[in-house]
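BACKBONE GEOMETRY TOKENS:
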Amino acid sequence: MPKTTAAKLAQAIAKNDISPVYLLTGEDLFRKQEIILQITAAVHPDDFNIYSSSADKADLGEALALANTAPVFSDRRLVILTGIEKLRKEPKEALIHYLENPLDTTVLVLTHDDSKKFKTEKSLAAAAAANGQTANFDELKQEELAQWVKNRLKEQGLNGTFEAVETLCEAVGGDLNALAQEIEKLSLYTADRADKNISKEDVLAGIGFSKEENPFALSNAVQYMNRDRALALTDKLLESGEDPVSVLGKITYPVLKMARIKRMVNAGMAPAEITRAAGLMFWESSLINNARRFPSEETFIRTLDRIIETDKAFKTSTASDPKTAIKGVLLTLFPHK
């Protein structure tokens, strides 16, 4: 079967057009996970007919044996193996051998999370394409991200204006999980409203600036390099009475995460390896692609030194103006717009 798109794949699954093999490539882990959930809902396996594991932790012999076994009191069996780029040569050859003649009562779902390495996986790609569906899930670019947001809004019965979609993308960044959560909040926000057209003002009201409404907003602004929003959120949080040490903590965590990612990217590590080593959730994978925009390692070191100094000043009550001190940290991290 020819390679399909993520959208067409979702449409086919929604019509219960289920293939015996799915190979999901690319580094957008959030959308791949959504497709896996959709496949799982369509197949609806019970506990006797499902196997799911990351490939590097799986007993591949057991997984393939199950894939080659008829389901128990069910029409189909579901086997999910994620991160198959981690498989060594012999297990990968065994997997390819299965793909050449898959059992039609089994649905085997594979994810390959390293785009660079996949370019050399010609036998694997050919075997999967011959007897199943393959689709690529690259990180969404600016226009694609906006379209994704518009589609997600429509799924919730909402219609976003151009300004609303642009504001949502700018405020949250490329974190699809965070965007999905904000869209869910917009759905709740407009639940009792006849007008389902979402404006820029609705987005700003839904996202909110206060710690109660969106505790991760400042951290998201930092890690998605939105300096102006980070500065504005700092003002809002401190003016609402948030403890300066707590506000500083919302900046420190993403700075440490970004510094780790930057170092791993510079060391030439693959995205899937970085995701595991940095302890990222699947929806945070876009940070790896954004690492080229991160400040230099020297800037991270200066920022962390500034954080230590500021934290000490807060705890010893020697900081004259908490707002100025925290903004100094942000301006050290982002010296230029």
Summary: Confidence is low (pLDDT under 50) at residues 209-213. Residues 244-266 form the longest helix (23 residues). The CA atoms of residues 65 and 98 lie 10 Å apart. Strands lie at 21-25, 50-54, 77-82, 106-112, 133-136, 159-160, 197-198.
